[in-house]
Specification:
Largest sheet: 2 strands, antiparallel
Number of strands: 6
Shape: elongated
Oligomer: single chain
Strand order of the largest sheet: 1-2
CATH architecture of the largest domain: Orthogonal Bundle
Order of helices and strands: EEHHEHHHEHHEHHEHH
Strand content: 5-15%
Radius of gyration: 19 Å
Distance between the termini: 24 Å
Length: 201
Amino acid sequence: MGNRNGFKIRDSDLHELERSIRILNQTEIIHIYKRWHQLYTAYSGEEQLPSPLDVEGFANLEASLPNSYIMNTMDELQMNPFKDRIVKVFSLSGDRLSFEEFLDMVAHFSYKMPAKRKVPIAFRIYDFDDNNIIGREDLKMMMDRLTGEDDVLPDETKTTIIDKVFEEACKDSHSVGLNLFDFKVVLSKSPDFDLTFGFNL
């Protein structure tokens, strides 16, 4: 019953996860669960977590971890300036990730995931105020995070860059921000998007 590498996931759960994710096979899903299990058992928070296994010894897919713990513990996220946004986008609760949500996140950052399925996720990550529009403040915040604490890019330069983005991507010169279609136009001019928006677990 889905027992590989010492981790038991019910066959029905494996098939459902494989069907919903589509780009990962069962071996890859179990590999990701193994990493999840390591994170879960290593968590040293004050709260008493439920067992990562159910009463029959199979994987408890409802178990969850705090977003803050995942983004500050995973090597693949620790140095990412958008790590808080990444985990939040995949969290239904807004502050915790279940294994299924963790799997969804890893799948979308997999190099196997087609770019067209990554774009809507990237849009949500950069939409800092979650209003379904990437406005000027969102773009400025994006640049601030990319340049970090040693930001040497003058505000005037950032404003010029933002103006240029709006000019090239927005059909409406009076637009208050980029919608998903506009965002796709911007990314179409970034051929390395698929390489930069990903990691191997």
